[in-house]
TrEMBL record:
UniProt cross-references to HAMAP family, sorted A to Z: UPF0309
Gene Ontology molecular function: any one: isomerase activity
Taxonomic lineage from the root: Bacteria, Bacillati, Actinomycetota, Actinomycetes, Kitasatosporales
Family designation: Belongs to the UPF0309 family.
Name the record gives this protein: UPF0309 protein DTW94_19720
Pfam families in the cross-refs: SIS_2 (PF13580)
Coiled coil, from the record: none
InterPro entries: RpiR-like_SIS, SIS_dom, SIS_dom_sf, SIS_GmhA/DiaA_subfam, UPF0309
Gene source species: Streptomyces cavourensis
Length: 251
């Protein structure tokens, strides 16, 4: 069987986006890494939030091998993914006013902590309010979004603003409006979204930058090891015990 032309085109598109982000967002990624390192050093906590498929990149940095143990998932029930019925409910909840406030008020997040908010479009009420309310509580907000949406679509929030308007640091994923990289004859809709690939890479690069900053300050980054390598469970147990007051996915 011959190679797939479209499969190769998707890889080319994804690689091109990754190169753009690496080259054009390096300063912002470094700033985000520094903010995370500052919070770790100061005894603060780290949180990540995303709704719908944006939640995939948030989950990718929580409780995983090679990841910072202090990164916690901030969840809004019904918006974490396609685990609700009907699946369209999650998208509808992103447009509901007040959810972000209720979640933040009930969460352990407090002044001095960092919250990374991931929203591809950044136009719905949930991520905008999450950023607004988090900053009002004294959190530092890092936004991962596609600036193209803020420049070429209308906000769905009553303020008329986008996620990028309420962040301390903004990382632009460069994803085009519609989040589909390919078109082809005979296929009516554009397809092959790359936002998960690119956004997850941004998140991991941010974590790498944070680890680099911590080591430069003489601080051992609180990283987790794989539980599938010898000694991994013992290592993770020690890390979780040492930082138990700042880890909220362990009960």
């Amino acid at each position: 069987m011959s190679d797939s032309k479209l499969a190769g085109q998707f890889f080319d598109a994804a690689i091109g986006l990754l190169q753009r982000v690496r080259d054009e967002e390096s300063d912002s990624i470094a700033a985000a890494g520094t903010a995370i390192a500052d919070t770790v050093e100061a005894g603060g906590r780290l949180f990540a939030f995303g709704a719908g498929h944006s939640s995939l990149a948030a989950q990718d940095v929580v409780y995983r091998a090679g990841g910072l143990a202090l990164m916690n998932l901030l969840t809004v029930p019904g918006t974490v993914g396609v685990d609700v019925m009907p699946a369209t409910l999650g998208s509808a909840l992103e447009r509901v006013d007040g959810l972000a406030s209720a979640v933040l008020d009930s969460s352990p997040a407090t002044a001095g902590d960092v919250l990374v908010i991931i929203s591809l479009s950044g136009r719905n009420a949930l991520p905008v309010e999450m950023a607004q309310n988090a900053r009002a509580l004294g959190l530092k907000v890092i936004g991962v979004t596609s600036v193209a949406y803020a420049e070429n679509t209308r906000s769905r929030h009553t303020s008329g603003g986008f996620l990028r308007d309420h962040c301390d640091i903004v990382l632009d994923s460069k994803i085009a409006i519609g989040d589909a990289e390919l078109t082809a004859p005979g296929i009516e809709a554009p397809f092959a979204p790359a936002s998960t690939v690119v956004t997850s890479a941004i998140m991991q690069s941010m974590m790498a930058a944070a680890a680099e900053r911590l080591v430069a300050r003489g601080i051992e980054p609180p990283l987790l090891r794989s539980g599938n390598v010898d000694g991994g469970h013992d290592w993770n147990g020690r890390v979780m015990t040492e930082y138990r007051e700042r880890i909220f996915y362990r009960h």
